[in-house]
Each structure stands twice: as C-alpha cells, then as structure tokens.
Amino acid sequence: MFQPLPLFVGLRYSLAREHSFFVSFITWVSLLGVAVGVAALITVLSVMNGFESELRDRLLALSAHATLNAGGAAIPDWRTRIDQMKGSPGFIGAAPFLDTDAMLSRQPAMSGAIVRGIDPTLEPQVSQIAESLREGTLSDLKPGSNRMILGRMLAYELQVGVGDSVTVMIPGTAPDGSDNFTPRLQDFDIVGIFDVGSQEQDGVLALVNLADAQALRGLAGPTGIRLRFNDVLRAPTLAREAASRLTPGLKLRDWTEENEAYFRAIRIEKTTTGMILLLIVAVAVFNVVATLVMVVSDKRTDIAILRTLGLSPRGVIGVFITQGVLIGWIGTALGVGLGLSLALNVDVIVPFIENNLGFHIMDPDVYYISGIPSEVHPGDVVRIALAALILTFIATVYPALKAAQTQPAEALRYE
Fold this sequence. Notes:
The chain is built from 15 helices and 10 strands. The chain is of the alpha+beta class.
C-alpha cells in the first residue's frame, strides 16, 4: 500500500499550503484535538496514579505488607516463626501483634477502637509509626506499664492528650463459665499521639505493649505476625515464598486483600475516567474524517489525473492514509510531549496556579492529601499513544476508500 509514489503524494498533500482556508483550519483543529486529548489522558491518569500511590503509602504506614495469623488463636512460638523466614528473598522484617476490638472511654466521651499490642523494638521493621509520632516514643510502651499511644483523631474524639488516662473495655465471659457477658476493664495512661494522615488509622487505632495486650485478653502470645518486604508491589509473591518456609498452621493474608475495596474503586475510577477522556480523542478523530473527506472532494481532479497516469486504486488509498496517519502521528507526538511536561511538573504548576488565583485546589483543612501528586507510568503513556494512533488510522479508511472509487472519466468530464 505504502509505495514510494503514494507516500510522496500523501506527504505533498499534507504539507502543501494551497488548501482552502477552511480545510486547513479543520486540519489544525483535528491535529490539536488529538494532542489535547492525549495530553489530558496522560496528565489525569498520572495524577490518579499519584493519588493511588499516596493512598497506598498512607494505608501501609501502620499496616504491614502481609500478615500471618492462626484464626484468632495465640502464636506462642512467634519468635521461632520469624527466625524461619529470615533470609527469604526481599524479606526485611517481621513483628508480632495482637488486635482487640474495644471501647475506650473518658467521661463524658466514648469511642470504639482497635487496641493493638505491639513489640516496640520490632514494630519499626514493619511500619512507619516511629516517624508518625507527634508526641511520645515507642520506647514509652514498657511491659506491664499499661501505657497507650493514640491516633490523633481518636484522641480528639475522646478529648484526651498525653498525661491523661482512658478506660479500655473489652467483652469477656463470666468467672463461673456461664454465657453471661462480663466486660473487662483496664485503665491506660496516654503517653503519645501519632498522625499518619489516614482516617482508617488515626481514628480507630490505639497502641499498647504486647505484654499488656496479652494480659488484657488473657492470651499466651500474639494472634498474628506482620511482615514487610523490600518491594510493596511484589509483596504478595514474596510473602507466599516466605510463608512456604514455615511449618503449617498459619494463614497468610497480604495487603492487596486487606485493602482490596479501596484499590478496586480506584481502578474502576481510572478506567471510567480514561474512557471519558478518550472521547476527546474520538471527537478529534471525527474531525480527521471530515478533513480527509473535504480533501478528497477538493482533489478529485488530481486523483483522476493520477489514475490516468497509472496509479492504482490501492495507491490512491495509500495517499490519503498517509495524510491521515501524519495528522495522527504529529498530534500524538505533541500530546505525549505536552502530557509528560504537565505530569512531571504538577508540583510546580499547581502551586503557581494556586498562588495566582488565590485558592487551594486541595484545601489542607478539608483533605488529608493537601497536594496533587503525580506518578507517570510508561505503560500508560504507551497505551494512550497507541490508542490515539489506532483511532486516527481507522479514521482514514473511509475517506481513502471513497477516494479510490473516483472514476477518472467522471472527474475530468467538465475540466
């Protein structure tokens, strides 16, 4: 199809300046439409990738990449289990934990919470709690001290601060072994406040020493082990490999399962947004069709002369496909360049807009994420560019076929 003559003629038609003003205008609109559509897709999807990464980092600030549990039972040999996993590919560290659903109260406030028992020496290996502390240190959680570190929002709901105390209430059974509900009560002193910027953590989590949590629950060990690896995206695979070194009895659960609803929602939103923005490219593609139809009508005489000189219908198709594809390539290239420029400089562009217009796009008083993050994925850029090129190629087919159907005798009858 793309023989030298059709290619040469197609480029001449594309680059020549003797088109009518309207045809030239529509050509530029088509080209710019493709560019704007591609740039919008790259920029928006990069921003959504940035929000996804930011959300993942905040969710995993106090959550491990994977957890091992025995179905709610204690794991007294947890140290041996951790030793068995050492040396596994990508393995960074592990720490025990014991989660308990509880009610925290300090008159007149009361709030539901998750009381998590941790080992202060091992916890920094699996979470970023040490970096998220606003007040206090992990070393303040000494065994038997009944001390607690609260999330910022939970402390606000309870109206407490460092130095205050709260009462922890958990369900329990009656001493006589009957099914009657007898709550267990224990006072804890507040020695720290953490803030990771996630309502899921800051609003419900209270940290205590593992020994205190075991005493509160009456268990002989933690109920789970949290794991961390050097690559969060490969953590599910690495976790399975590490767990394969253990003796049977523990159930593995990775972070993608624990936060599946969040990331499924983000994937659906990204897909929907991408399809909506692809309509911009689709509109530009219709303009390409209109442009080529007008060029075919304008060049009927030229087509007829080329046919009488021996150019085949297939060669005529090649001429107009060359012209349409050139519009698509230039528009896509401009769009990729503009999109990457915007996506890679969001941290500069957004503050500039906010400073000049005098408002915050992401008001820090309303949103946990006060900036607009951006993360460019090369795979997204390639898929967007290919989609634009394929659509513009398809747009050339109908006008090219119409041009090939031109009858030389009919076109030259009145010339």
